[in-house]
Design the sequence.
């Protein structure tokens, strides 16, 4: 057991610390291997002290996923030079641009990609606490990507499904062999076929 951190952090900073520690642990062990005691220890808190900030293990999981989505949206908006609220609606970005930016972002954060890959697979079971989150996330992503498809595409939703499948598949290969698999180059080759 680690020594408890006696310093008091502002609530928002403490919550961010808890979310970051939980992200790290889920990426290593999956949700079912996540110990609330390990999260608390990593933050220098007691379990009840940590739960004061997050509620429950299930609500902590959803909070981690939402936090990571917010961070990724901010990064994507910055990379594309757009305000976050206009990313999907201003008509000035294309699907290939967004996909290239997403892959470049993901290539720099393997632990986050691993977190989502592990949780998405685990959440295929309807009783998983992130089941609804991932169903909604998939639907939203497909709609956003379809909305960015070139006007000449006859089946934008079909293209979006293929793009997501290709991105997810390449990421799994990259996570398995990170020293020999170049995610960005693999995506560029796939994008040339898809678009």
Sequence:
């Amino acid at each position: 057991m680690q020594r408890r951190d006696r310093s008091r952090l502002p609530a928002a900073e403490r919550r961010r610390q808890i979310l970051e520690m939980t992200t790290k642990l889920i990426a290593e062990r999956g949700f079912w291997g996540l110990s609330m005691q390990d999260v608390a220890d990593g933050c220098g808190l007691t379990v009840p002290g940590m739960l004061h900030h997050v509620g429950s293990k299930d609500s902590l999981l959803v909070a981690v996923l939402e936090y990571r989505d917010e961070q990724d949206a901010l990064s994507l908006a910055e990379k594309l030079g757009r305000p976050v609220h206009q990313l999907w609606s201003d008509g000035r970005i294309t699907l290939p641009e967004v996909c290239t930016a997403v892959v470049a972002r993901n290539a720099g954060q393997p632990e986050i990609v691993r977190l989502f890959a592990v949780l998405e697979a685990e959440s295929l079971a309807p009783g998983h606490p992130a089941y609804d989150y991932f169903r909604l996330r998939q639907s939203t992503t497909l709609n956003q990507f379809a909305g960015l498809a070139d006007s000449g595409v006859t089946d934008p939703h079909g293209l979006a499904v293929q793009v997501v499948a290709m991105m997810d598949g390449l990421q799994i290969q990259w996570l398995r062999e990170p020293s020999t698999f170049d995610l960005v180059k693999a995506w560029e080759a796939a994008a040339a076929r898809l678009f």
